[in-house]
Amino acid sequence: MSRTSLPLLLAALGWSLMPLLWQLLTSLRTAEALVLQGAGAWLQGWTLDNYRLVLQGDPPFWRYLLNSSLVGAASTGLTLLLAIPAAYGLQRQRPALRGALSLALLAAAMFPYVLLFLALLELARALGWGNQLLALALPYAGLSLPLAVLLLRAAFADLPEELEDAARLEGLNLWQRLRRVLLPLLAPAIASTAILVFLFSWNEYPIALTWISRADLLTLPVAMARIAGSSVYAVPYGAFAAATVLGALPLLALVLVFQRQIVSGLTQGAVKG
Amino acid sequence: MTLLLLLPALALAAAVFLWPLLRYGWLSLQAHSVLTALVPVPNGGANWQRLLADGRFWQDAAQTLRFAGLSVGLELLLGLSLALLLHRPLPRRGLVRAVVLLPWALPTTVMALGWRWILNDPFGPLNGLLRSLGLPAYGFLSEPRSTWLFTVLADVWKTTPFVALLLLAGLQAIPAELEEALRLEGANAWQRLQRLTLPLLAPYMLLAALFRLAQALGVFDLIQVLTGGGPASSTESLALYAYLNAMRFLDFGYAATVMLGMFALVLGLSALVLVGQAMRRRWAAAGLTP
Fold first, then answer.
1. Is residue B21 classed exposed, middle or buried when 0-12, 13-18 and 19+ CB atoms within 10 A define those classes?
2. Chain B residues with CB inside 8 Å of A5's CB?
3. Rounded to whole angstroms, what are the CA distances from A70 to A80, A266, B63?
4. H helix or E strand, kind and range, residue B30
5. Per CATH, is A61-216+247-272 categorized as 1.10.3720.10?
6. Chain A residues within 8 A of B238 when measuring between CB atoms
7. For B31, phi and psi rounded to 5 degrees?
8. Is the pLDDT of residue A44 over 80?
C-alpha cells in the first residue's frame, strides 16, 4: 500500500459512512440537545427515547421490516423460478435470436421503471391487488427478470456443453439435468442474482407507494417516506434519525454478509451483459 | 422446445414493460380525468398539444436534464477514482468494499430522510459546521437557485459505488502485463492511465453512463422525500410531475402523455450517447484523436 492511497482510502470510507454516523449520533440525542448544541453540551442530552418512540409506534417499526422481508423473499423466489429456465432456454437458442433477445433484455434492465407505475396501478385495481402485500412480487419479479435472465444466461454460457451432453447420454431428462448437473454448478451465480433481486424488491418505492395504502402493510421505503411526510421544517429529527438507523441496519447486515455476491453480480452484469 | 422455457419469463416481463407503454399510447389520446368523471373520452391530440405548450413540463424537463447531467458526470469521475483506488492492493478488501457499497444498498427514501436532517436549516450538522466557522446558517433546502445542487449531492453519494464497481470489473479485465510493459517503456502513471486504462475502460464507462443516465432521468424517490420538488418547483423532476398529474390532479390522460414525453427524452439521449460513442470510435479508427 503506497503512501498516497491510505489517506484517499480513509477519505472514501469517511464519505460513505459520515452521513450514516450523523444519523446514529442524532438518534441518540434529545430534541433539546439537537437544538442547543452549545459548547460543553456533549456531556448531557443522550437518550434512547427516540428508539422507544419509533419501536412503539402504531404499527411498530419492525412491522415494516417484516413486510419488506416478506415481499423481498417472495419476489426473489418468483424471479428465480422464472429466470432459471428462461436463461437456460435463451442460451440454447440460435445466436441471432439469442443476441436480439439479450439486447431487448438489456434495454429493459436499463429502463427507468418509475414510468410504469400508472399502468401497473390500473392493473392492480382491475385485478383487486391493491393492499395485497404479496401481489407486489409479480411486478417486482417482472421488473427484475431482464437482469436476472442476463446474469444467469452468462453463467450457463460458462458451463461446457459436453457436460450436459454427457448427462443426456446417461438418460437424464431436462429436469434431471438441470437439477442434478447444471444448477449445483450455477449456485454462485444464482446467489448473486438472488441478492440483487432481493435488494431491488426491498428498496422499491413508486409501485409499493401506489399499491399499498394500509398502514400495517407498508414496506419500509414507503413507511420512511410517510414518516418524512410531516413538514420539512418540523424538528422531530431524533425520531427520524432513529427510523433511518433502524431502516439501514438490515441492509448493513446484508451487505456485510453478501458483499462478495453483490460485487460479483454487478460485475458479471458488466462483463457479460 | 427450449423456446417454451423462455415464454413465462418473457410474458411477465412484457406485461410489466410493454403493456404500460401501449396503454400510455392509448391513454395519451383520451381525456381521462375528474372533468370526464374518470371515464376515458377520445380527445384527438389535445393532450399532446397541451404538453408542447406546458411551461411546467419543459421547466421540469430542463431541471431533470440538469440534474442527470451533473449527477452522472460526477458519478463517472468519482466512480473512476474510487475504482482506481479499490483496484490497488488494500488491507481488509472485503470490509472496505462492503463499506463503500453501503450507500448504494440503502433504500433511497431512508437516506433522503437522512440528508434532510444533515441539510436542515438551522439545526442540521452542515449548518452546525458553518456556525462553528463563524458563518451564517444557509437554507440548503430553501434556496430555489441552489437546492438542486444538494439533490445532486445526495444522488452522487448514493450511486457512485455502483459506477465504481462496474468500472472496477473493467479494470480487473485489463491484463497486468500490459501495464507492466508500459511501465518498462518509461510511461508514468498518468500516461499509463491515458494510453492504456481509459481506452480499455471505455466500454464499461459507456455502459455505466447509459445505465445511470436512464435512471437519473427517472429520478423520483429522492426528490419526493428530500425536497418534494420544492422550493418553488425548482427541483421537480419529470417523474414527479407525471406522478402529481396522476395521483394528485387525477388527470390520467395527461399523466400518460407526460410519461411518454419523458420516455422520448430518455430514448433520445441514450441514442445520442450511443451515436457519439460510435463516431468517436470511427474517428479513432481513422487515426484522428478527438
1. middle
2. 85, 88, 90
3. 16, 24, 37
4. strand B30-31
5. yes
6. none
7. -85, 120
8. no
pLDDT digit string (tens) for A83-122?
999 999 999 999 999 999 999 999 999 999 999 999 999 9
Contact by Cβ (8 Å): A144, A201: yes
Q: In sequence order, which residues have a C-beta less than 8 Å from that of residue B280 and are 6 or more positions away?
A: B290
Cβ distance of A203 and B102 shorter than 8 Å: no
ipTM of the complex: 0.90
Q: What Rg do the C-alpha atoms of chain B give, in angstroms? A: 23
DSSP state string for A105-124: HHHHHHS-GGGGHHHHHHHH
Nearest to A16 among B23, B103, B263 (CB): B103
Q: Hunting for cell 447444471 — which residue is that?
A: A182
Global pTM exceeds 0.95: no
B89 band by pLDDT with thresholds 50, 70 and 90: confident
Closest CA to A195 of A249, A151, A142: A151
Q: Which domains does chain B have, with CATH numbers?
A: 55-275 (1.10.3720.10)
Looking at chain B, which residue has its C-alpha nearest residue A117? B20
pLDDT given at position B169: 86
Three-state SS for A262?
helix
d(CA B208, CA B169): 11
For A3-12, A183-192, B202-211, which range has the lowest pLDDT when averaged over its residues? A3-12
User: What is the rounded CA–CA span in Å between residue A204 and residue A41?
Assistant: 40
Q: Which residues pair with B30 in a beta bridge?
A: B42
Closest chain A C-alpha to B288 CA, distance in angstroms:
28
Q: Measure the CA dihedral A154/A115/B211/A139, to 10°.
A: -30
Round to whole Å and give the CA distance between B170 and B91: 21
Amino acid at A236: P
